[in-house]
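User: Before I run my own analysis I want an independent prediction to cross-check against. Here's the chain; please return only the structure tokens and, at the end, one sentence I can use as a sanity check.
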Amino acid sequence: MEILSSRILLRPSDVERSHRFYRDVLELAVYREFGAPDHPGVVFFLGQGLLEVSGATDARPGGAVQIWLQVRDLRAEHARLVARGVPILREPRREPWGLDEMWIEDPDGVRIVIVEIPADHPLRRDTR
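Assistant: Structure tokens:
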């Protein structure tokens, strides 16, 4: 299989609310918008990946779907999100596997893991 492009698709219960969360709260950059101008779908950059927030659903997302976002400074992101009123599900802490993580969720309950890779972690030292 040759993968040319990929993205995570979210079908939130309230599209505009989710657009505001990902654009204004998390401050993800917009890759593109499409569809009707009054109800567009929005594709956001996720580092090397993409997140499309479009359409709508009445169903709650499954607990198996999570978004993993690596940041440079987890403590700074924690302070910024707290100041914006984002509930923190789990405060920043060092995990047994050596990564610093904090958990939040989007307005529909999709878990978002925000991660900082410490300077001495093997992911930083791997030169492959």
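Sanity check: Residues 60-128 form a domain with the 2,3-Dihydroxybiphenyl 1,2-Dioxygenase; domain 1 fold (CATH 3.10.180.10).
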